[in-house]
Amino acid sequence: MATLPVSLHMLYRKQYFYDDFARHVKNRCESGYEALMNSEQWLLQHKTITQGLRSSKRVPMLLVGTPYYRNGAQALYAFATGLTVEYYCGYESQEYVWPLPEHAGNKVYFGEPLVFISGEQDAQGMTKSRRNGKALAELIISVIFLQNNELGYIENCQVRDLLQEFEYACVNFETNRDIANDKKRAKEAEYWANEESQETAKEYRQQNSEHEGMYSGVKMEPDSDDDGRSSFQSRANRMPSSARSYTTSHIRAGTSYGNNNSAYTFSSRGNNHRFWALNPLPSAARSHGASSAATPSRRSDTSYSRLTSPRDVEGRLKRVSQARRTLKEFHRGSVAELERRTQAAEAEERSARAKAEREAGISQRRSGPC
Fold first, then answer.
1. Domain end among 308, 338, 360
2. Along the 370 residues of the chain, how does pLDDT read in single tens digits?
3. 30 plus 113 within the same structural domain
4. Is residue 184 part of a domain?
5. Does 140 reside within a domain?
6. Does any domain span residue 326?
7. What is the largest CA-CA distance in the chain?
8. For residue 118, how many C-alpha atoms fall within 13 Å in the half-sphere facing its CB?
9. Closest by Cα among 107, 146, 143, 145 to 123
10. For residue 253, how many other CB atoms are within 10 A of its CB?
């Protein structure tokens, strides 16, 4: 934030009350002010301080983030005194907290909702943008204490335009919060689109494998048969449940599948279910089991009544593709809206700066020699 002329320091008050901030933003950014002050993420807790001037005192504190590490286990609490903001470390489940060392002032990582005002605060060292973001966050912390009647007023020790900074924080909060919510919704939409696509692909693969052959993917092991013919033994525990039930029912019936060139004959011997694949089979072997059951048609069997046509599967895949295209358009709209709001905020800031400079020039001319 640019340094204001020295002559404007006389325009800033020494003390600010809660009503001052509420009146200032009433006709400027009322929606941002309402969103900021009425957020459900503000959490005031009473903690007991173990060290320092306020040792053994139980005071209200605001949960603002984490110290030392962005995803650390400890919690960071802020206590506004009216002159400054003090930081304390502790755990949410414990009563006692201890002061954050002064040399760890650049290890303050704000969480939601303060991160929408201060930024990520992850730059190396205490840069200018990081200092400005931290100052805005501390101003909002003090205003929250004012709103909850934990402070009487805020002392303007550094002679800053606190009202203008509060207005900027309200606009910044609303913009960044909307962007974060848009990203969260887009991520959820992408997640559910992927889930639907995966389910569609798995159903199509399963139904297609049942249609082409119910033994696809089942491991077969060579086994010697009593009459010397080549045979394979299927491990029933490695077979899908649907294929296992279908196979067992037809094995017990002694069903024979065949045509002019090949035949598949099933037999049941105790607990070992075996089948032979002979191409071609002798006429006697091909007629085995014909008296017990007629040759069924794969299309007419009830095991394939749940099959979905490729046209239906393609329709579902098209709907998933349409959802992804809608998601990309949603991303582009969010970026355009962000640019529009940023340009509007910059225009308002330039207008306010020009107005302040004009007022400064008028005051200098009036205070000059007659």
1. 308
2. 444 444 444 577 788 899 889 888 888 888 888 888 888 888 888 999 988 777 788 899 999 988 888 777 789 999 999 888 999 999 988 899 999 988 887 788 888 888 888 877 666 667 787 888 888 899 999 999 999 888 889 988 887 888 889 988 888 888 888 888 888 888 888 899 898 889 888 888 888 776 665 544 444 444 444 444 444 444 444 444 544 444 444 444 444 444 444 434 444 444 444 433 334 444 444 444 444 444 444 444 443 334 456 667 677 777 777 777 777 777 677 677 777 888 888 888 888 888 888 888 777 776 665 4
3. yes
4. no
5. yes
6. no
7. 130
8. 27
9. 107
10. 14
In 235-328, which ranges are E strands?
Answer: 256-258, 263-269, 272-278
Q: Which helix (H) or strand (E) holds 89?
A: strand 85-90
- On whether the CB atoms of residues 307 and 210 are closer than 8 A, the answer is yes
> For the purposes of burial, counting CB atoms within 10 Å of the CB of 172, is it exposed (0-12), middle (13-18) or buried (19 or more)?
buried
Residues 240, 207: contact at Cβ < 8 Å? no
238 shares its domain with 93:
no
DSSP element (H, E) containing 58: strand 58-67
Does one domain contain both 237 and 107? no
Domain boundary residue, one of 136, 152, 168: 168
Same domain, 68 and 158: yes
Give the number of other CB atoms < 10 A from CB of residue 197.
17
CA dist 20 and 151 (Å) reads 14
Q: What domain range includes position 130?
A: 14-168
Residues 162 and 234 placed together within one structural domain of the fold:
no
Query: Are both 136 and 253 inside the same structural domain?
Result: no
Instruction: Examine the domain organization and report whether 149 and 230 are in the same domain.
Output: no
Q: Do the domain assignments include residue 241?
A: yes
User: What's the structural domain count of the chain?
Assistant: 2
Collect all residues with Cβ–Cβ distance below 8 Å to 167 and sequence separation of at least 6. Answer: 24, 25, 28, 29
